[in-house]
Prior knowledge:
The complex is a heterodimer.
Chain A lengths: L1 H7 L3 H26 L9 H16 L2 E7 L8 H21 L3 E5 L2 H17 L11 E3 L4 H14 L2 E9 L4 H10 L4 E5 L2 H7 L5 E4 L2 H10 L2 H35 L1
Parallel strand pairs in A: 1-2, 1-4, 2-3, 4-5, 5-6
Helix pairs in contact in A: 2-10, 3-4, 3-9, 4-5, 4-9, 6-7, 9-10
Chain B lengths: L1 H26 L3 H38 L5 H23 L8 H42 L3 H17 L9 H44 L10
Amino acid sequence: MDLLADLGAIEPHVAALIILVVSGLMLAGMMVLRGRRGSAVAVRSLPAFRDLRNRIQDMAETGGTIHVAVGSGALDGQDSVISLGGLQTLEGIADATVAYGVPLLVTVGDPTLLVVCQDVLRRAHERRGLSGFYDPARVRYVAPSPPAYAAGAAYELSVEDASVSVLAGVFGAEASLIADAGSRRGLPQLAALANTQAIGALYGATDHLAVGEELFAAGAQMTEDRPQLVSLLVQDVLRVNLVVVTIIAAALALLGSLGAG
Amino acid sequence: MRSLVRRWLPTILFGTIPGLVVLFGYLLPIEGLSDLSGYFIDWAVILAGAALFLGIVNVMGVHGGRIRRRQAGWPYSLVLVLAAAGAAVPPLMQVLGFFGAGASGPEVWFEATRIMFAHVIVPVGAALGGLVAFTLALSGFRLLRERRSLWAVIFLIVAVITLLGTTPLAGPPGDLAGDIGMALAEARSWVMGTLAMPGMRGLLLGVALGTVVTALRVLATIERPHSES
């Protein structure tokens, strides 16, 4: 019981530091083992996003537009990093669409995202030496309020005759308006979301849903960028350690309460 | 050297340094650092304002082009352009001081803007919000029709319990409707507190970890959303 009392008295920042140090040691160990084996970074698989590249390749032959909705999270707000996760996904899709000559339509609900999304598209064209084909109007700022953005993005999706719809970024329950427009057209729909309301709203409407931290994994799978894949590995190790600590803490709390009883 | 200046200097100057200053401005109680952090945040707000102007130019460009080319849905684009132009008049007049020779001039334009918000934008926004409830119900029906799995059934049962448990069905004790209402409310409370909350915490924990790792990548210039990698 003394041990339980001692563990309970650990300050939260000390506990966080211990978790970080243990995670760091685990990562260092994993890196050494990987270095010996020479294996590539393996992260959780999101087949829908991994296969999107093949789908885009097919669309080069069959025709059609890909619609990517990056949401209404501002880059200067509290959801900026979630929007960055959406931008990673967009970057992977933009690279593939430019490579295969498939039209891409991007809708954004915040003006700061407009500029960055246009830049992502421009750079994708530059990387392929196709700067002349870059059209900034393929990125569309729809509306500042989330419901108006969702309604406007649903309209753009219909008018532009999209063949695939991808939602990646900051969304709320209003994302169901975009998903509903896609469902009525029978489109394959993929979503990578962090907001629990949006996840609930889109569970029934999309074919493939990447939830929570999988938003960041979706971008990494699309771009296959090594720093992103390695950071996913870091995320996974931290998460496993947190889960283990949570289970141990719950077990100790249970033992403590039984002992007190 | 040229590559270093072109690729790294802007990233470090405009990304890493302001990012670290703002971060440490929150974490460390140093007065000068907090002030500097405040300046950077103010500049970000000004930049976001400039981006809004670009956004308006984008909206006008896209819909203007659609009207010129008589593309599908061009009448809607025309309505949008006219509505946007009309909505811009009162605030512009207020700022420029037109018709403001009399003392009541600016108040008239302010009132016009307020009426526009209160009687057009807010009701339309509320209507869209109401529409979300219908699209959610529709997606529930579609789920049952197109994806008949155990998870889909569980999802719908939980959704129905949560919805009904939120409605005010409670009646006097002993009354059947009241008892059912109470049971549903208790079931909802159990589902939300015991099943949904841990799942939501797990999700948020994952998102928080992803957020921290991505933010660290941006600060360490590994992730450069604003420049070529």
